[in-house]
């Protein structure tokens, strides 16, 4: 186990952990977004509720979820460690340059990333406390049985709808998505840079993809609470 802690605290280990967990979390965001867009289907939540049931009962997805929780914890803890270390180093003499270079980014960008990251962490605590907790442990969700299906499912859709009926939550989600956009804008390309995947030909393409991801993912996430608040359900079910 000692080799693992040595690796995690070495400058190369920090880079690898931050980059790989960051890219893994981005892939989660893409999957989570495509699932959540089903909230905008005009079917009273049937497809979303069936999907939520599948996501929380399928053994493979349950297993991947543990990787996700570990990924979130590692990314957040490692990020905070780097940030605190850089701050301490800037307080000292001569060491700042060394640490800054070690994590592969400049001090201002790293500090901004940390602040956006902390905002996202606060968002995640509130978000998971609300929806994830309700789905996993909350007994208050109503059970619904849909025509053609034997098994009853939890009505998570009504819970999400009730949350986004509150304008404070809608504003909170939109602001958090702005933080996510800022974090991804720097984070995606920085992950490739930290892994040493730099090439004059491909780096502009990576930056372009990073900008696209940083704009489109948070924008589509932000649209969900706004549309639900105004009762706009523009998508139609592809199950019927
Ligand atoms: C409008 C935006 C969003 C909505 C409506 C939404 C909705 C939900 C719901 C209903 C759940 C519980 C059911 C489930 O586990 O799948 C959930 C879980 C979760 N959400 Fe979100 N989400 C949104 C944005 C985000 C964002 C931006 C992040 C990350 C920055 C995020 C991270 C998570 C995580 C980590 C879980 C737990 C997943 C698991 O247990 O496998 N969500 N979300």
Summarize the structure.
The protein has 240 residues and is mainly alpha-helical. The chain is built from 9 helices and 2 strands; from the N terminus they run H-H-H-H-H-H-E-E-H-H-H. The structure holds protoporphyrin IX containing FE.
Helix and strand layout, with pairings?
Elements: H1 2-9, H2 11-36, H3 46-57, H4 59-91, H5 95-102, H6 107-136, E1 143-144, E2 153-154, H7 156-163, H8 167-194, H9 203-229
Description:
- This protein is mainly alpha-helical and 240 residues long.
- It has one domain: Up-down Bundle (3 helical TM bundles of succinate and fumarate reductases).
- 75% of the residues lie in helices and 2% in strands.
- The chain has helices spanning 2-9, 11-36, 46-57, 59-91, 95-102, 107-136, 156-163, 167-194, 203-229, and strands spanning 143-144, 153-154.
- A two-stranded antiparallel ribbon has the order 1-2.
- The N and C termini lie far apart (52 Å).
- Bound molecules: protoporphyrin IX containing FE.
